[in-house]
């Protein structure tokens, strides 16, 4: 059977002769006994075929006569279990059916292969005792022997575990360290000398809490925490694959994330908007922009590819990403077969896949504040001049003929090879990854018309050849249109999802997009509480709301665990990408549930749960290593101290620019291109495809690392040297490596050379005690006597720029204590 079906009949009938009238329930169903196997697990084999239920068997996508009524001898089922007619015998291992059992099946088929008409497949509900699938508990706050150490319930859970292990917590970190730590954790930037002085001189008992509230209210908080979310969203500014086209409007989704986090959008709303903002009643442009989360999939524009395949791959990615980001499960492992370890069937995967199977990729106008007025005033004049240019070069009449020929080509593939190429280019090179629909529409929007016309002007040579293309001067026209567009104000755009006509979704046998199995409907994972909707076909909006429903135990746990991971370097569940049976168990399960409950019950506020954690005594501990715990808790799982964490790639760059005075603090906007080594773009498709790295000018050159244009085939070297993700798939936690290339990067990269020069200028001009000021700027503390002597000796032979470079390369500078 297709998909390598292995049918294992566990029941054995002892009938010596075929009865006269065969009863399905009595005689046949025990043979099937709901034990159809593929790779793993009962009832769910790779094509989804079940033989114990009539509807499931008929829908099984079987090629050939599975049951040929009245001719049991020619039934493919009989050939399979007998191993005749050239078929491989099933099952390939283990005991096979006896001759009298095969005769019974053959007779049943000859009698009409009758099932009861009421037979339907039961809901494939599953249960699991695994901790992650259980309801979130409401644990009592533990009582501890030393209650004076406890600042909030977080500490009670941590201290109770430490007391059981007979371990004392570390002392509180110094005030200098505390402010530098919490500033870097909440905003990604070090404190200024003025901020440090204000904190050190503030003797109020809530001085630290006041600093926390100040940092939570900073717009830079959103920039820091947006970066973590963009890792999960696999954000990048280009398509990926060979051509790796730049996505000029990808940043509009990033902008939405920053603004949502800045206003502390409740996480449940944050979730719903990104999965199904376009389906909300009277959805706003901002809610639609949020669905850009699912436009961060890769787009393959190579010639000769099968668009259907890459549409399938993108849908697989969307389903898998929902599983990892919100559920903390490796759902994507069930694309080809039942999950080997977790209670996630292949059917479960494709039921999640079905939520995204009918989405359409579209781009919309998404103006920023201040854009709409100038655009409206200039629109008519711009459209008039554009039309004049098109008329001058005879575009309307040439395009009409081109469209006509392409429609004929689409109906007669292989008849005209040059036009086949032109048709393929329309499908590959227009916005959204498959622009064929634009060409075939009877009516187009103005935006769609512009897309098709611009494509025609740039790519007409594929149909008519280079000589004719040069003759009509379309390259000249393209350049004029580009200049015209940059002369007049334009609206920002956004890459979003929209709902298209419903599609029939099938499980794919062995994950092969060309090999459909049974039909599936959108549904939640069977091991979790179900959607609770009576709709015949639930939508993405139902999925989004289900993710944050109180009955779903995973989303809140997964979210607070990643927040904890950001503040301690490791989650309560260390494998933050995998809450399944192969993942790590929570080190403090009651604390995890308490945090998850607080998160949900307090309006899903990101800022509130972060405030709770960073004001705890646990967070405020010193990070100094404790040799006495090297054998009992080397990985600091019990949190008897804080963690020392090397800053992220963006954090290192941002900190260097901040202390040097070069950092531009503009929030949001387009991606920027700071200096990078020569030759990087030539390593990818860039030069051939026209993508250039034109360095940003002025203040843009010194904006935060969050805004650096990230091209998947040629990523910005400093970011990848310090472990920024490749952005091909969702990343739940970054690695922290330590390489010699990183040191060379910090010493020689133009950004860090300029930072050292600017820092030297500040040190020399802003203070009468330059050495002390240098330490205040970079490390947030006074130098000790040994450091003053060492630096003074260095300055006798070298300049302030060299000393500044040393400070920017110190482990203490690139590390959050």
Name the assembly state. single chain
Q: How many strands?
A: 8
Stretches where pLDDT is under 50 for at least 5 consecutive residues are 1-17, 34-48, 59-65, 118-124, 686-690
Which term fits the overall shape? globular
Rg, rounded, reads 32 Å
What portion of residues belong to β-strands? under 5%
How much helix is in the residues?
40-55%
What does this 3D model show about the protein?
There is one protein chain. The protein is built from 35 helices and 8 strands. It has 817 residues and is mostly helical. The strands form 4 sheets. It has a two-stranded antiparallel ribbon with strand order 1-2. It has a two-stranded antiparallel ribbon with strand order 3-4. Helix 13 (307-326) crosses helix 14, helix 24 (554-568) crosses helix 25 (589-601) and helix 32 (750-765) packs across helix 35. The radius of gyration is 32 Å and the shape is globular. The model is unreliable at 1-17, 34-48, 59-65, 118-124 and 686-690 (pLDDT under 50).
Structural descriptors:
8 strands; mainly alpha; 817 residues; two-stranded antiparallel sheet; 35 helices
Topology:
Blueprint: E1 6-7, H1 24-32, E2 36-37, H2 54-58, H3 76-82, H4 99-110, H5 153-164, H6 175-187, H7 193-200, H8 207-216, H9 219-232, H10 251-262, H11 267-276, H12 285-290, H13 307-326, H14 346-353, E3 359-365, H15 372-392, H16 395-411, H17 417-429, H18 436-440, H19 446-459, H20 461-464, H21 466-471, H22 474-487, E4 493-499, E5 505-508, E6 516-520, H23 540-547, H24 554-568, H25 589-601, H26 606-614, H27 617-620, E7 645-646, H28 649-660, H29 686-689, H30 717-721, H31 740-748, H32 750-765, H33 770-779, H34 785-797, H35 800-809, E8 815-816
Antiparallel strand pairs: 1-2, 3-4, 5-6, 7-8
């Amino acid at each position: 059977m297709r998909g390598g079906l292995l049918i294992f009949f566990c029941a054995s009938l002892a009938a010596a002769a075929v009865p006269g009238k065969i009863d399905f329930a009595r005689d046949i169903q025990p043979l099937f006994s709901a034990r159809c196997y593929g790779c793993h697990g009962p009832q769910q084999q790779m094509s989804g075929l079940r033989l114990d239920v009539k509807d499931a068997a008929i829908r099984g996508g079987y090629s050939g006569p599975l049951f040929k009524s009245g001719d049991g001898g020619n039934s493919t089922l009989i050939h399979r279990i007998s191993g005749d007619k050239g078929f491989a015998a099933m099952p390939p291992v283990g005991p096979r059916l006896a001759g009298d059992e095969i005769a019974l099946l053959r007779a049943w088929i000859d009698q009409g292969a009758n099932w009861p008409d009421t037979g339907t497949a039961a809901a494939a509900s599953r249960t699991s005792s695994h901790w992650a699938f259980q309801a979130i508990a409401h644990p009592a706050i533990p009582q501890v022997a030393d209650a004076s150490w406890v600042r909030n319930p977080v500490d009670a859970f941590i201290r109770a575990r430490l007391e059981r292990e007979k371990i004392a917590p570390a002392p509180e970190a110094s005030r200098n360290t505390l402010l530098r730590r919490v500033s870097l954790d909440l905003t990604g930037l070090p404190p200024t000398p003025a901020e440090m002085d204000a904190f050190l001189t503030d003797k109020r008992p809530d001085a630290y809490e006041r600093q926390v509230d100040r940092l939570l209210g900073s717009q830079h908080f959103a920039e820091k925490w947006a970066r973590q979310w963009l890792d999960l969203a696999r954000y990048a500014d280009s398509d990926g694959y060979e051509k790796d086209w730049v996505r000029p409007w990808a940043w509009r989704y990033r902008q939405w994330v920053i603004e949502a986090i800045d206003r502390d959008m409740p996480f449940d709303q944050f979730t719903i908007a990104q999965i199904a903002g376009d389906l909300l009643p009277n959805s706003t442009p901002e809610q639609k922009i949020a669905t850009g989360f699912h436009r961060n999939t890769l787009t393959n524009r190579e010639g000769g590819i099968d668009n259907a395949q890459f549409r399938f791959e993108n849908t697989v990615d969307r389903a898998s990403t929902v599983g990892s980001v919100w559920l903390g499960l490796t759902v994507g492992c069930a694309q080809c077969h039942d999950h080997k370890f977790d209670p996630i069937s292949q059917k479960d995967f494709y039921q999640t896949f079905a939520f995204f199977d009918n989405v359409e990729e579209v781009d919309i106008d998404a103006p920023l504040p201040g854009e709409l007025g100038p655009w409206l005033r200039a629109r008519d004049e711009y459209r008039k001049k554009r039309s004049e240019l098109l008329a001058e070069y005879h575009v309307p009449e040439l395009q009409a003929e081109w469209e006509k020929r392409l429609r004929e080509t689409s109906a007669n593939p292989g008849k005209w090879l040059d036009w086949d190429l032109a048709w393929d280019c329309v499908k590959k090179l227009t916005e959204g990854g498959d622009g064929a629909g634009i060409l075939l529409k009877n009516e187009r929007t103005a935006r769609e018309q512009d897309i098709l016309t611009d494509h025609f002007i740039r790519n007409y040579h594929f149909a008519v050849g280079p000589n004719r293309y040069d003759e009509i001067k379309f390259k000249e026209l393209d350049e004029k249109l580009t200049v015209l567009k940059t002369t007049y104000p334009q609206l920002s755009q956004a890459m979003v999802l929209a709902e298209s006509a419903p599609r029939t979704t099938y499980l794919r046998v062995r994950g092969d997009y060309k090999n459909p199995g049974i039909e599936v409907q959108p549904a939640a994972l069977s091991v979790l509480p179900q959607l609770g909707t009576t709709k015949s076909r639930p939508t993405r909006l139902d999925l989004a709301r289900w993710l944050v429903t109180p009955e779903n135990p995973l989303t809140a746990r997964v979210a607070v665990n990643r927040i904890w991971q950001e503040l301690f370097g490791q989650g309560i569940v260390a494998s933050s990408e995998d809450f399944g049976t192969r993942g790590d168990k929570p080190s403090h399960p009651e604390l995890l549930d308490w945090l998850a409950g607080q998160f949900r019950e307090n309006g899903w506020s990101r800022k509130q749960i972060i405030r709770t954690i960073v004001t705890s005594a646990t967070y405020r501990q010193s990070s100094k290593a404790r040799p006495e715990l090297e054998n009992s808790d080397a990985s600091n799982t019990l949190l008897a101290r804080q963690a020392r964490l090397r800053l992220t790639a963006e954090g290192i760059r941002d900190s260097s620019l901040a202390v040097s005075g070069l950092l531009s603090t503009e929030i949001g906007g387009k991606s920027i291109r700071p200096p990078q080594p020569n030759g990087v773009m030539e390593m990818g498709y860039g030069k051939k495809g026209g993508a250039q790295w034109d360095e940003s000018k002025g203040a843009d050159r010194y904006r935060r690392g969050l805004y650096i244009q990230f091209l998947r085939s040629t990523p910005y070297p400093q970011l990848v040297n310090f472990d920024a993700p490749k952005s091909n798939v969702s990343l739940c936690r970054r690695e922290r490596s330590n390489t010699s290339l990183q040191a060379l990067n910090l010493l020689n990269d133009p950004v860090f050379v300029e930072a050292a020069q600017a820092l030297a200028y500040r040190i020399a001009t802003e203070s009468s005690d330059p050495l002390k000021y240098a330490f205040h700027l970079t490390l947030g503390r006074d130098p000790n006597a040994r450091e003053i002597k060492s630096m003074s000796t260095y300055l006798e032979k070298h300049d302030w720029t060299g000393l500044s470079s040393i400070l920017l390369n110190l482990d203490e500078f690139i590390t959050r204590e």
